[in-house]
Amino acid sequence: MSKVMIVTGGSRGIGAATARLAATRGYQVAVNYVSNREAADQVVNEITAAGGRALAVQADMAVEADIVALFETVDRELGPVDVLVNNAGIVDQVARVDEMSFERVDRMMRVNVTGPFMCAREAIKRMSTRHGGKGGAIVNISSAAAHRGGSSEYVDYAASKGAIDTFTEGLAKELAGEGIRVNGVRPGVINTEIHASGGRPDKPEQSSKSIPMGRAGNAIEIASGILWLASDEASFTTGARLDIDGGV
């Protein structure tokens, strides 16, 4: 039986690249999306056309019931999860902290921090040898912003990703004896649609000047790191944070 991977936020950008690459490595893939069913279906159709198996599943990472239903759907349609990629995340418009509303920060933390916690909870219940599982892997997607701070742009986003770094380290230690490896990937500036949603569609081009390698990254470069951490090639790796950022 091929392994099952859940990719949250799998309809675009890094998530979509990860889902496609995972399918070529033999995974059955659950492509999670929150609202853009058309984009998720396109990823699924590309995978199935190439002979793989994939499923689009709607779930809002800020809603616990949606997350529980996501895992139950995957149990029923694909089987118990082997790999969870906590990729779903949001960014907001450029702003200083003294310009941020409570609602903005609350939403940022619910989607970017609470959502991954709840997804991990559901994955652990299925993977952990403590619960009768056979083990597995969790890969949390953080950001270079976690150690750069996002000053005068997205301090709330950076803080949420700093929380993910801490979560990764703590959870890795908690689960190391239960057959689950937990690692993180910290992308730098990547050519994806997320920058437009934050009002900075030109950020990859503008940031290239300050990246030592002289360019922004591509989603497939991040997906490759994610798939390595999920694979048996990384069998002695847990609690790691893999920086894929062009040297920043």
From TrEMBL:
InterPro entries: KR_dom, NAD(P)-bd_dom_sf, Sc_DH/Rdtase_CS, SDR_fam. Keywords: Oxidoreductase. Residues 3-193 form the Ketoreductase domain. Coiled coil: none annotated. GO terms for molecular function: glucose 1-dehydrogenase [NAD(P)+] activity. It comes from Kushneria phyllosphaerae. It comes from the Bacteria. This is Glucose 1-dehydrogenase 1. Its EC number is 1.1.1.47. PROSITE patterns: ADH_SHORT. Belongs to the short-chain dehydrogenases/reductases (SDR) family. It holds the Pfam family adh_short_C2. Transmembrane segments: none annotated.
